[in-house]
Amino acid sequence: MVLLPQNMIYRRALGAMFAIFIAVFISHQVSFAEEFWITTTCMLVMQTAVGLTGRQGLQRLLVIILCVLIASYYIFYQHQRMVVDIAAIIFIAVLCYFSLAAKVIRPQVVIPLMIGIVVLMVLVIPFFPLDKTMMRVIDVVSGGLLGFFASILILPVRADVEFRKEAIPLLNACSDYLAAIIHYMFDHSLVNELVEKKMQLEVVWEDFPDWVYEAGFIAMLQQGHRHFLVRIEEVRQILLMLDHLARHEYDYDLLKKFKTVTQSYQVQIERLIQSITTVLTLQKLSEGVDDLTEEFEALEKKFKSIMPYSLEMLEINRDYVYLANFIFELKELGKMLVILARTLRAS
């Protein structure tokens, strides 16, 4: 099975390969100036961060056009070749310094280095008539537009869509796992169902969309998705703790007093998870985010009504200790999901 990060890399690589092939063919057939301008511009324009393909592509195209015009006019009016060579060496050295000083580790070419490449290509070419400058600009624009549309149309990488596709099964697996934990807590004969739901969550977790941590993604995309993934990781850890606490052999009469409110709280959590998945599918919610306050207060009051008044008794009876921890973890689970839901609604 091809993992998602590899799938995205392959798509970007294949898209770039097709675009460069088309650029080479066009430059060989209809290039107005030097043949390499269409191919070079197409390649540089496609070197954008995932999530900013359109805007960064147009920015790079405008920067390349400006560099070509300035460098072309410079070598036309500066007739001394030695002065041009010295200026080229100094210019490239300065831009390389700024490229390294930026300390940006990305799979795409950074802007200062791109400027240096374009200007160097212009300066090392023999002198040519000034009227050919516009022909050169036409080649640059042709290659840039080809790269721009190719990155959008040829095997595009839509990271936001890919992320949502991976997050929704993860949330559904968490919801199913919680239901299995609650059912098992009141009926230990359902151990097979609990193990099955836990394994399903682990299988889905293997496709955890952690590719947003990789280089090549815009900072805004990484921050929003990383926050989501951190919350999901916390939800998963809480579910594992609930699994551990549910395996304790509680007194049956004690559990009966909590069964109704606990299952009600479970239903509200499942509704909250469903609302999050609804937002991820870009659909509208029929109601606002439920903060689970009333359900948890009922559960906590029920616990306090049967909890022994003596702290020493609470420490001696392990049922009360485990049950108190179970209720606390349920409360934390509700908090995490509310934060997650409100974050998605605000974004």
Estimated share of beta-strand residues: under 5%
Looking at CATH, the homologous superfamily of the largest domain is Phosphate transport system protein phou homolog 2, domain 2
- The CATH architecture of the largest domain comes to Up-down Bundle
N- and C-termini, Cα separation:
33 Å
Structural class given helices, strands, pairing?
A: mainly alpha
Largest sheet: none
Low-confidence residue ranges? 1-6
What letter string, H or E per element, gives the SSE order? Answer: HHHHHHHHHHHHH
Work out the count of structural domains. Answer: 2
- Cα-atom Rg, whole angstroms? 30 Å
Q: Quick check: average pLDDT? A: 76
Q: Would you tell me which CATH topology of the largest domain applies?
A: Methane Monooxygenase Hydroxylase, Chain G, domain 1
Number of separate helices: 13
CATH class category of the largest domain: Mainly Alpha
Inertia-based shape? elongated
Annotation, overall tally of beta strands: 0
Share in helix: over 70%
Commentary on this structure:
- With 347 residues, the chain is mostly helical.
- It folds into two domains: 4-153, no CATH class; 159-346, Methane Monooxygenase Hydroxylase, Chain G, domain 1 (Up-down Bundle), CATH 1.20.58.220.
- It is 77% helix and 0% strand.
- It contains 13 helices and no strands.
- Helix 2 (36-45) crosses helix 6 and helix 3 runs antiparallel to helix 6 (133-153).
- It starts with a helix and ends with a helix.
